[in-house]
Design a protein that fits this description.
Elements lengths: L1 H10 L9 H16 L3 H37 L5 H32 L2 H21 L2
Length: 138
């Protein structure tokens, strides 16, 4: 039970790689978004919001790594108590909630600057580019 909770809280949100899935997708989305949004003002606003979301995802992934290290310390410590784990989990959950709300706000700002068609075009191109990069790296 504890292991499942730890995976959900610390390992499963944005992937276990060093950048995380959300950060990778945000990086793959920038060029396709530039191409998809013709209006310069909306494009600039959308790219700003994308950058803010990416920064939020990076901060979230960094915090997950830090919290995971803290859990590992508690596990290794002989005299760790249930209260130690509870305090860490409570604090981590509060941080995750605040971080996810900020990321969601930036995503919402991004989506308010693009049309559905532009978004679909950019997402399709980002997925294709990511797939091509992964295939090339094999």
């Amino acid at each position: 039970m504890l292991l499942a909770l730890l995976v959900v809280l610390f390992g499963g949100a944005f992937g276990s790689d060093t950048q995380g899935v959300g950060a990778l997708m945000a990086r793959h989305l920038e060029a396709p978004l530039r191409a998809a949004v013709a209006d310069e003002a909306r494009r600039a606003e959308a790219l700003l919001a994308l950058g803010q979301a990416r920064d939020g995802i990076d901060a979230l992934n960094k915090a997950v790594r830090k919290d995971t290290a803290e859990v590992e310390k508690l596990i290794r410590r002989y005299d760790s108590t249930a209260q130690d784990f509870d305090r860490l989990m409570d604090a981590a959950l509060a941080r995750r909630q605040a971080q996810m709300e900020r990321i969601w706000a930036h995503r919402s700002a991004l989506l308010s600057r693009v049309t559905r068609e532009e978004w679909d075009q950019a997402m399709a191109a980002a997925k294709a580019a990511r797939g091509a990069r992964e295939a090339a790296s094999r």
